[in-house]
Hints:
Structural class: alpha+beta
Oligomer: single chain
Shape: globular
Number of strands: 10
Radius of gyration: 23 Å
Amino acid sequence: MAGLSFLDRGFLDWPFFEERHRTLARDLEIWAGAHLGATHDTNLDEACRKLVRDLGSAGWLKYAIGGTAYGAAADNIDTRALCIIRETLARHSGLADFAFAMQGLGSGAIILFGTEGQKKQYLPRVAEGRAIAAFALSEPEAGSDAAAIQCQVILRGDHYELNGEKTLISNGGIADFYVLFARTSESTGSRGITAFIVEAKTPGFEIAERIQVMAPHPLARLKFSNCRIAVSQRLGEPDHGFKVAMATLDVFRTSVAGAAVGFARRALEEALRRATSRKMFGQTLADFQLTQAKLAEMATGIDAAALLTYRAAWLRDQGQNVTIAAAMAKMTATETAQKVIDAAVQMFGGQGVVSEEPVERLYREIRPLRIYEGATEVQQLIIARGIIKWFQESELSQVKAAEASQLAGGRKP
Protein backbone atom coordinates (compact mmCIF):
# COMPACT_ATOMS: atom_id res chain seq x y z
CA MET A 1 0.00 0.00 0.00
CA ALA A 2 1.23 3.49 -0.84
CA GLY A 3 2.50 5.41 2.17
CA LEU A 4 3.56 8.94 2.93
CA SER A 5 6.38 8.99 0.37
CA PHE A 6 4.71 11.29 -2.12
CA LEU A 7 3.43 13.64 0.56
CA ASP A 8 6.99 13.92 1.86
CA ARG A 9 8.18 15.10 -1.55
CA GLY A 10 6.89 18.55 -0.71
CA PHE A 11 4.37 19.27 -3.46
CA LEU A 12 2.02 20.45 -0.73
CA ASP A 13 4.45 23.31 -0.14
CA TRP A 14 3.56 24.73 -3.56
CA PRO A 15 1.98 28.20 -3.25
CA PHE A 16 -1.38 26.81 -4.39
CA PHE A 17 -1.98 25.41 -0.90
CA GLU A 18 -2.69 26.72 2.56
CA GLU A 19 -1.92 25.05 5.87
CA ARG A 20 -5.45 23.62 6.07
CA HIS A 21 -4.81 21.75 2.81
CA ARG A 22 -1.59 20.27 4.14
CA THR A 23 -3.34 19.18 7.32
CA LEU A 24 -6.20 17.67 5.33
CA ALA A 25 -3.80 15.73 3.10
CA ARG A 26 -1.83 14.26 5.99
CA ASP A 27 -4.92 13.36 8.04
CA LEU A 28 -6.57 11.67 5.06
CA GLU A 29 -3.36 9.81 4.20
CA ILE A 30 -3.26 8.31 7.68
CA TRP A 31 -6.96 7.39 7.55
CA ALA A 32 -6.71 5.89 4.06
CA GLY A 33 -3.67 3.83 5.02
CA ALA A 34 -5.62 2.35 7.92
CA HIS A 35 -8.99 1.83 6.24
CA LEU A 36 -8.53 1.34 2.50
CA GLY A 37 -7.07 -1.41 0.39
CA ALA A 38 -7.87 -3.47 -2.65
CA THR A 39 -11.56 -4.31 -2.79
CA HIS A 40 -12.07 -8.03 -3.36
CA ASP A 41 -15.67 -8.08 -2.12
CA THR A 42 -17.73 -10.04 -4.61
CA ASN A 43 -20.70 -7.84 -3.73
CA LEU A 44 -19.67 -4.62 -5.47
CA ASP A 45 -22.83 -2.76 -4.50
CA GLU A 46 -22.37 -3.42 -0.81
CA ALA A 47 -18.66 -2.54 -1.00
CA CYS A 48 -19.56 0.81 -2.52
CA ARG A 49 -22.32 1.46 0.01
CA LYS A 50 -19.91 0.69 2.84
CA LEU A 51 -17.30 3.07 1.43
CA VAL A 52 -19.89 5.86 1.27
CA ARG A 53 -20.87 5.20 4.89
CA ASP A 54 -17.23 5.08 6.00
CA LEU A 55 -16.28 8.24 4.13
CA GLY A 56 -19.29 9.98 5.60
CA SER A 57 -18.75 8.89 9.20
CA ALA A 58 -15.06 9.86 8.97
CA GLY A 59 -16.04 13.35 7.83
CA TRP A 60 -14.47 13.29 4.36
CA LEU A 61 -17.74 13.66 2.44
CA LYS A 62 -18.34 17.07 3.99
CA TYR A 63 -15.74 18.32 1.49
CA ALA A 64 -17.80 17.00 -1.44
CA ILE A 65 -20.61 19.50 -0.86
CA GLY A 66 -20.93 23.21 -0.12
CA GLY A 67 -22.81 25.00 2.67
CA THR A 68 -21.96 24.68 6.35
CA ALA A 69 -25.66 24.84 7.15
CA TYR A 70 -26.01 21.46 5.39
CA GLY A 71 -23.01 19.75 6.98
CA ALA A 72 -20.31 20.87 4.54
CA ALA A 73 -16.75 21.75 5.52
CA ALA A 74 -17.20 25.27 4.10
CA ASP A 75 -19.86 27.43 2.50
CA ASN A 76 -18.23 27.05 -0.91
CA ILE A 77 -16.65 23.90 -2.29
CA ASP A 78 -12.88 24.04 -1.82
CA THR A 79 -11.64 22.76 -5.19
CA ARG A 80 -8.10 22.25 -3.94
CA ALA A 81 -9.39 20.12 -1.06
CA LEU A 82 -11.54 18.19 -3.51
CA CYS A 83 -8.50 17.40 -5.67
CA ILE A 84 -6.29 16.49 -2.70
CA ILE A 85 -8.93 14.07 -1.44
CA ARG A 86 -9.44 12.45 -4.83
CA GLU A 87 -5.69 12.17 -5.43
CA THR A 88 -5.17 10.53 -2.05
CA LEU A 89 -8.11 8.16 -2.32
CA ALA A 90 -7.18 7.18 -5.89
CA ARG A 91 -3.68 6.22 -4.75
CA HIS A 92 -5.18 3.84 -2.21
CA SER A 93 -8.42 2.62 -3.80
CA GLY A 94 -10.09 3.38 -7.11
CA LEU A 95 -13.48 2.42 -5.70
CA ALA A 96 -13.06 4.77 -2.74
CA ASP A 97 -12.28 7.61 -5.12
CA PHE A 98 -15.35 6.70 -7.17
CA ALA A 99 -17.58 6.64 -4.08
CA PHE A 100 -16.36 10.05 -2.94
CA ALA A 101 -16.51 11.67 -6.38
CA MET A 102 -20.05 10.57 -7.12
CA GLN A 103 -21.34 12.02 -3.86
CA GLY A 104 -20.04 15.37 -5.07
CA LEU A 105 -21.05 15.12 -8.72
CA GLY A 106 -24.45 13.63 -7.88
CA SER A 107 -25.33 16.45 -5.50
CA GLY A 108 -23.39 19.27 -7.17
CA ALA A 109 -26.36 20.63 -9.08
CA ILE A 110 -28.36 20.81 -5.83
CA ILE A 111 -25.53 22.80 -4.23
CA LEU A 112 -25.45 25.24 -7.15
CA PHE A 113 -29.11 25.51 -8.13
CA GLY A 114 -31.25 23.84 -5.46
CA THR A 115 -33.90 25.56 -3.40
CA GLU A 116 -33.42 25.89 0.34
CA GLY A 117 -35.83 22.98 0.84
CA GLN A 118 -33.99 20.77 -1.63
CA LYS A 119 -30.64 21.51 -0.01
CA LYS A 120 -31.94 20.71 3.47
CA GLN A 121 -33.54 17.50 2.23
CA TYR A 122 -30.55 16.04 0.40
CA LEU A 123 -27.20 17.61 1.26
CA PRO A 124 -26.88 16.64 4.95
CA ARG A 125 -27.61 13.01 4.09
CA VAL A 126 -25.01 13.09 1.30
CA ALA A 127 -22.38 14.60 3.61
CA GLU A 128 -23.01 11.99 6.29
CA GLY A 129 -23.02 9.07 3.86
CA ARG A 130 -26.67 8.26 4.60
CA ALA A 131 -27.82 8.81 1.01
CA ILE A 132 -26.07 7.87 -2.23
CA ALA A 133 -26.24 10.38 -5.08
CA ALA A 134 -26.07 9.94 -8.86
CA PHE A 135 -25.75 12.21 -11.91
CA ALA A 136 -27.92 11.03 -14.81
CA LEU A 137 -26.94 12.85 -17.99
CA SER A 138 -25.78 10.29 -20.58
CA GLU A 139 -28.16 8.52 -22.96
CA PRO A 140 -27.70 5.91 -25.69
CA GLU A 141 -27.43 8.75 -28.25
CA ALA A 142 -26.16 11.49 -25.96
CA GLY A 143 -22.68 11.00 -24.55
CA SER A 144 -20.10 13.65 -25.38
CA ASP A 145 -22.91 15.55 -27.13
CA ALA A 146 -24.99 16.11 -24.01
CA ALA A 147 -27.26 18.51 -25.89
CA ALA A 148 -28.61 15.52 -27.86
CA ILE A 149 -30.71 14.40 -24.88
CA GLN A 150 -33.99 12.76 -25.89
CA CYS A 151 -35.37 11.66 -22.53
CA GLN A 152 -38.55 13.74 -22.27
CA VAL A 153 -40.75 15.19 -19.56
CA ILE A 154 -44.17 16.76 -20.02
CA LEU A 155 -45.80 19.06 -17.47
CA ARG A 156 -49.20 17.73 -16.42
CA GLY A 157 -50.70 19.99 -13.78
CA ASP A 158 -48.86 19.56 -10.48
CA HIS A 159 -46.36 17.02 -11.80
CA TYR A 160 -44.14 16.10 -14.71
CA GLU A 161 -44.37 12.85 -16.63
CA LEU A 162 -40.98 11.41 -17.58
CA ASN A 163 -40.30 8.89 -20.34
CA GLY A 164 -37.04 7.65 -21.82
CA GLU A 165 -33.72 6.09 -20.89
CA LYS A 166 -30.37 7.01 -19.39
CA THR A 167 -27.30 4.82 -19.71
CA LEU A 168 -23.82 4.36 -18.22
CA ILE A 169 -25.02 6.08 -15.06
CA SER A 170 -22.55 5.81 -12.20
CA ASN A 171 -24.13 4.56 -8.96
CA GLY A 172 -27.02 3.32 -11.08
CA GLY A 173 -28.82 0.67 -9.06
CA ILE A 174 -27.53 1.76 -5.64
CA ALA A 175 -28.28 5.50 -5.60
CA ASP A 176 -31.06 6.86 -3.39
CA PHE A 177 -31.67 9.77 -5.76
CA TYR A 178 -30.62 10.90 -9.23
CA VAL A 179 -30.07 14.40 -10.58
CA LEU A 180 -31.50 13.85 -14.03
CA PHE A 181 -31.66 15.93 -17.20
CA ALA A 182 -34.53 15.67 -19.66
CA ARG A 183 -36.03 17.57 -22.55
CA THR A 184 -39.01 19.75 -21.65
CA SER A 185 -39.69 21.36 -25.01
CA GLU A 186 -39.42 20.73 -28.73
CA SER A 187 -36.34 22.96 -28.95
CA THR A 188 -33.25 21.21 -30.28
CA GLY A 189 -29.71 21.32 -28.97
CA SER A 190 -28.99 22.69 -25.52
CA ARG A 191 -32.27 24.57 -25.30
CA GLY A 192 -35.30 23.00 -23.72
CA ILE A 193 -33.49 20.79 -21.19
CA THR A 194 -34.51 20.84 -17.52
CA ALA A 195 -32.95 19.26 -14.43
CA PHE A 196 -34.86 17.21 -11.85
CA ILE A 197 -34.20 15.28 -8.66
CA VAL A 198 -35.67 11.80 -9.06
CA GLU A 199 -35.98 9.49 -6.08
CA ALA A 200 -34.94 5.89 -6.73
CA LYS A 201 -38.28 4.54 -5.49
CA THR A 202 -40.40 6.74 -7.77
CA PRO A 203 -43.10 4.65 -9.55
CA GLY A 204 -42.34 4.29 -13.25
CA PHE A 205 -38.57 4.27 -12.65
CA GLU A 206 -36.68 1.01 -13.05
CA ILE A 207 -33.13 -0.24 -13.40
CA ALA A 208 -33.32 -1.75 -16.87
CA GLU A 209 -29.80 -3.18 -16.91
CA ARG A 210 -26.71 -3.38 -14.75
CA ILE A 211 -23.63 -2.63 -16.85
CA GLN A 212 -20.34 -4.42 -16.25
CA VAL A 213 -17.24 -2.34 -17.04
CA MET A 214 -13.49 -2.97 -16.96
CA ALA A 215 -13.01 -1.08 -13.68
CA PRO A 216 -15.70 -2.54 -11.39
CA HIS A 217 -18.03 0.31 -10.46
CA PRO A 218 -21.82 0.30 -10.05
CA LEU A 219 -23.25 1.41 -13.42
CA ALA A 220 -26.68 0.96 -14.93
CA ARG A 221 -29.13 1.77 -17.69
CA LEU A 222 -32.20 3.53 -16.32
CA LYS A 223 -35.68 3.38 -17.81
CA PHE A 224 -38.62 5.72 -17.15
CA SER A 225 -42.19 4.87 -18.15
CA ASN A 226 -44.80 7.51 -17.29
CA CYS A 227 -42.71 8.33 -14.23
CA ARG A 228 -44.38 11.06 -12.15
CA ILE A 229 -42.11 13.77 -10.78
CA ALA A 230 -43.50 16.53 -8.57
CA VAL A 231 -42.93 20.09 -9.77
CA SER A 232 -41.14 20.70 -6.47
CA GLN A 233 -38.46 18.23 -7.64
CA ARG A 234 -37.47 20.44 -10.55
CA LEU A 235 -33.93 21.74 -10.13
CA GLY A 236 -33.30 25.27 -11.34
CA GLU A 237 -35.35 27.10 -13.93
CA PRO A 238 -37.32 25.32 -16.68
CA ASP A 239 -35.36 24.89 -19.94
CA HIS A 240 -32.07 25.85 -18.23
CA GLY A 241 -30.94 22.31 -17.46
CA PHE A 242 -28.00 22.34 -19.84
CA LYS A 243 -26.56 25.28 -17.92
CA VAL A 244 -27.08 23.31 -14.69
CA ALA A 245 -25.25 20.29 -16.10
CA MET A 246 -22.30 22.26 -17.50
CA ALA A 247 -21.88 24.32 -14.32
CA THR A 248 -21.83 21.13 -12.26
CA LEU A 249 -19.25 19.49 -14.53
CA ASP A 250 -17.10 22.63 -14.42
CA VAL A 251 -16.87 22.30 -10.63
CA PHE A 252 -15.85 18.66 -10.59
CA ARG A 253 -13.86 18.28 -13.85
CA THR A 254 -10.67 19.48 -12.18
CA SER A 255 -11.07 16.80 -9.51
CA VAL A 256 -10.97 14.12 -12.23
CA ALA A 257 -7.46 15.36 -12.95
CA GLY A 258 -6.70 15.04 -9.24
CA ALA A 259 -7.76 11.38 -9.30
CA ALA A 260 -5.63 10.75 -12.39
CA VAL A 261 -2.60 12.24 -10.63
CA GLY A 262 -3.27 9.90 -7.71
CA PHE A 263 -3.42 6.84 -9.97
CA ALA A 264 -0.21 7.93 -11.69
CA ARG A 265 1.65 8.52 -8.41
CA ARG A 266 0.71 5.03 -7.21
CA ALA A 267 1.89 3.54 -10.52
CA LEU A 268 5.25 5.31 -10.27
CA GLU A 269 5.70 4.13 -6.71
CA GLU A 270 4.96 0.55 -7.73
CA ALA A 271 7.33 0.89 -10.70
CA LEU A 272 10.13 2.20 -8.48
CA ARG A 273 9.63 -0.63 -6.01
CA ARG A 274 9.75 -3.16 -8.84
CA ALA A 275 12.69 -1.58 -10.65
CA THR A 276 14.89 -1.36 -7.56
CA SER A 277 14.19 -4.93 -6.42
CA ARG A 278 13.93 -6.94 -9.65
CA LYS A 279 17.20 -8.73 -10.43
CA MET A 280 18.09 -9.06 -14.11
CA PHE A 281 21.38 -10.01 -15.79
CA GLY A 282 23.41 -9.48 -12.66
CA GLN A 283 21.91 -6.10 -11.75
CA THR A 284 18.55 -4.55 -10.93
CA LEU A 285 16.06 -3.34 -13.47
CA ALA A 286 16.66 0.20 -12.18
CA ASP A 287 20.33 0.00 -13.20
CA PHE A 288 19.43 -0.05 -16.89
CA GLN A 289 19.51 3.35 -18.59
CA LEU A 290 16.31 2.55 -20.49
CA THR A 291 14.52 2.06 -17.19
CA GLN A 292 15.98 5.26 -15.76
CA ALA A 293 14.86 7.24 -18.82
CA LYS A 294 11.34 5.88 -18.50
CA LEU A 295 11.17 6.64 -14.77
CA ALA A 296 12.34 10.19 -15.48
CA GLU A 297 9.58 10.66 -18.07
CA MET A 298 6.99 9.27 -15.65
CA ALA A 299 8.02 11.54 -12.78
CA THR A 300 8.21 14.65 -14.97
CA GLY A 301 4.83 13.96 -16.54
CA ILE A 302 3.22 13.53 -13.13
CA ASP A 303 4.60 16.83 -11.84
CA ALA A 304 3.44 18.64 -15.00
CA ALA A 305 -0.05 17.17 -14.60
CA ALA A 306 -0.15 18.04 -10.90
CA LEU A 307 0.87 21.63 -11.61
CA LEU A 308 -1.92 22.05 -14.16
CA THR A 309 -4.41 20.36 -11.84
CA TYR A 310 -3.72 22.49 -8.79
CA ARG A 311 -3.41 25.65 -10.86
CA ALA A 312 -6.95 25.07 -12.15
CA ALA A 313 -8.17 24.25 -8.63
CA TRP A 314 -6.54 27.38 -7.20
CA LEU A 315 -7.98 29.57 -9.96
CA ARG A 316 -11.49 28.29 -9.29
CA ASP A 317 -11.10 28.89 -5.57
CA GLN A 318 -10.17 32.49 -6.43
CA GLY A 319 -13.49 32.85 -8.24
CA GLN A 320 -12.05 32.81 -11.75
CA ASN A 321 -13.48 31.09 -14.82
CA VAL A 322 -11.61 27.81 -15.22
CA THR A 323 -13.27 26.24 -18.25
CA ILE A 324 -10.02 26.23 -20.23
CA ALA A 325 -7.71 25.59 -17.27
CA ALA A 326 -9.84 22.66 -16.07
CA ALA A 327 -9.93 21.18 -19.58
CA MET A 328 -6.14 21.44 -19.82
CA ALA A 329 -5.75 19.78 -16.42
CA LYS A 330 -8.22 16.99 -17.12
CA MET A 331 -6.76 16.22 -20.55
CA THR A 332 -3.12 16.31 -19.45
CA ALA A 333 -3.55 14.43 -16.19
CA THR A 334 -5.62 11.57 -17.62
CA GLU A 335 -3.49 11.11 -20.73
CA THR A 336 -0.30 11.29 -18.67
CA ALA A 337 -1.60 8.82 -16.12
CA GLN A 338 -2.45 6.36 -18.90
CA LYS A 339 1.15 6.54 -20.16
CA VAL A 340 2.65 6.28 -16.67
CA ILE A 341 0.52 3.27 -15.75
CA ASP A 342 1.23 1.55 -19.06
CA ALA A 343 4.96 2.02 -18.45
CA ALA A 344 4.59 0.58 -14.95
CA VAL A 345 2.80 -2.51 -16.30
CA GLN A 346 5.62 -2.94 -18.81
CA MET A 347 8.23 -2.88 -16.04
CA PHE A 348 6.37 -5.63 -14.21
CA GLY A 349 6.45 -7.81 -17.30
CA GLY A 350 4.10 -10.78 -17.17
CA GLN A 351 3.32 -10.10 -13.53
CA GLY A 352 1.90 -6.74 -14.56
CA VAL A 353 -1.11 -8.31 -16.29
CA VAL A 354 -1.95 -10.74 -13.49
CA SER A 355 -5.46 -10.03 -12.23
CA GLU A 356 -5.61 -7.84 -9.09
CA GLU A 357 -1.95 -6.85 -9.17
CA PRO A 358 -1.84 -3.15 -8.19
CA VAL A 359 -0.62 -2.03 -11.63
CA GLU A 360 -3.19 -4.23 -13.38
CA ARG A 361 -5.98 -2.63 -11.33
CA LEU A 362 -4.60 0.82 -12.11
CA TYR A 363 -4.58 -0.04 -15.81
CA ARG A 364 -8.31 -0.75 -15.66
CA GLU A 365 -9.09 2.19 -13.39
CA ILE A 366 -7.43 4.90 -15.49
CA ARG A 367 -8.99 4.10 -18.85
CA PRO A 368 -12.51 5.41 -18.11
CA LEU A 369 -11.12 8.73 -16.83
CA ARG A 370 -10.05 9.63 -20.36
CA ILE A 371 -13.72 9.40 -21.37
CA TYR A 372 -16.08 10.39 -18.57
CA GLU A 373 -16.90 14.02 -17.71
CA GLY A 374 -15.74 14.96 -21.19
CA ALA A 375 -13.49 12.77 -23.34
CA THR A 376 -10.00 13.97 -24.20
CA GLU A 377 -11.19 15.00 -27.64
CA VAL A 378 -13.90 17.17 -26.08
CA GLN A 379 -11.31 18.82 -23.83
CA GLN A 380 -9.24 19.60 -26.92
CA LEU A 381 -12.22 21.32 -28.50
CA ILE A 382 -12.92 23.31 -25.33
CA ILE A 383 -9.32 24.49 -25.14
CA ALA A 384 -9.00 25.32 -28.83
CA ARG A 385 -12.29 27.19 -29.04
CA GLY A 386 -11.48 29.06 -25.86
CA ILE A 387 -8.09 30.31 -27.00
CA ILE A 388 -9.42 31.15 -30.49
CA LYS A 389 -12.19 33.23 -28.92
CA TRP A 390 -9.69 34.95 -26.62
CA PHE A 391 -7.39 35.73 -29.57
CA GLN A 392 -10.20 37.11 -31.74
CA GLU A 393 -11.53 39.28 -28.92
CA SER A 394 -8.01 40.53 -28.21
CA GLU A 395 -7.44 41.38 -31.88
CA LEU A 396 -10.80 43.15 -32.11
CA SER A 397 -10.05 45.11 -28.95
CA GLN A 398 -6.74 46.30 -30.39
CA VAL A 399 -8.40 47.35 -33.66
CA LYS A 400 -11.05 49.33 -31.81
CA ALA A 401 -8.42 50.96 -29.61
CA ALA A 402 -6.44 51.96 -32.70
CA GLU A 403 -9.55 53.38 -34.40
CA ALA A 404 -10.45 55.32 -31.28
CA SER A 405 -6.94 56.74 -31.13
CA GLN A 406 -7.07 57.83 -34.74
CA LEU A 407 -10.44 59.50 -34.29
CA ALA A 408 -9.20 61.30 -31.20
CA GLY A 409 -6.13 62.43 -33.10
CA GLY A 410 -8.22 63.71 -36.00
CA ARG A 411 -10.21 66.00 -33.70
CA LYS A 412 -7.13 67.79 -32.43
CA PRO A 413 -6.62 71.36 -33.82
